[in-house]
Write a structure and sequence with these properties.
Length: 196
């Protein structure tokens, strides 16, 4: 029961942080009046190239976080797997089945938390170094012509966080985004052909 309440507290904490960030962004937008940043006219191939590059980076980050999780929990996880296998074969074990199942659930939660936080941290570092997802979508002249330097800096900060979260979320999420973009382009192309 403690795991469930700590998981619920974690979700509440994440929702609270998201709400505070959204409120802060709204206050900044009202007080500072940011200028609109225009998107570039991009082809499907350009968008997919960006998403493929992000997918490759995300695959590397996934592998790195897997290695870190295995380094931290590998021996303990292998021991638990052996106990679960012996429990399934109805062999006698030193611990009860409920203890083994409970420990297995706790171990899965620990590995998931470490994997997610490691992926987000590595993804954010990669984004900070220069791999970005929003910047290539924006019109470079409109971005460089921004009067307020705070908006350029805040845009870069938001781009780093979004890219870090996107890369940290894994290649599967980026693949889903690329499939959505492909479907959208196909729909737009079909509707433009019908209008002609």
């Amino acid at each position: 029961m403690e795991n469930q309440s700590s998981g619920t507290n974690g979700v509440k904490f994440a929702v609270a942080i998201a709400a505070v960030l959204a409120l802060g962004a709204l206050i900044l937008a009202v007080l500072l009046g940011p200028e609109y940043i225009q998107f570039q006219d991009l082809s499907l191939e350009q968008v997919l190239k960006l998403l493929v590059n992000l997918s490759v980076v995300a695959l590397f980050v996934e592998r790195a976080s897997y290695v870190i999780v295995r380094l931290k929990y590998g021996p303990e996880d292998m021991k638990l797997e052996k106990e679960v296998k012996s429990l399934r074969r109805a062999e006698t074990t030193t611990r009860s089945g409920s203890e083994i199942v409970s420990d297995s659930g706790r171990m899965s939660g620990k590995k998931l938390m470490l994997s997610m936080s490691t992926s987000f941290i590595i993804g954010t570092i990669v984004a900070w170094v220069g791999v970005r997802c929003l910047h290539p979508l924006m019109d470079p002249t409109a971005l460089s012509d921004l009067v307020n330097p705070w908006q350029r800096n805040l845009f870069s900060f938001a781009d780093i966080l979004i890219t870090g979260a996107l890369i940290g979320g894994g290649a599967d999420g980026i693949y889903q985004i690329s499939m959505t973009v492909t479907d959208l382009f196909k729909f737009l192309r079909a509707s433009m052909d019908r209008d002609k």
